[in-house]
Amino acid sequence: MNPTVQDYNNLQSDSDKEICNQLAAIINENLSDAENKIWHAHPVWFLDGNPIVGYSKLKNNVRLLFWSGQSFDEEKLSNEGSFKAAEFRYTSSEQINEDDLKRWLNKAREIQWDYKNIVKRKGVLLRLK
Question: Which residues does the UniProt record annotate as the domain YdhG-like (predicted)?
Answer without folding.
Answer: 17-108
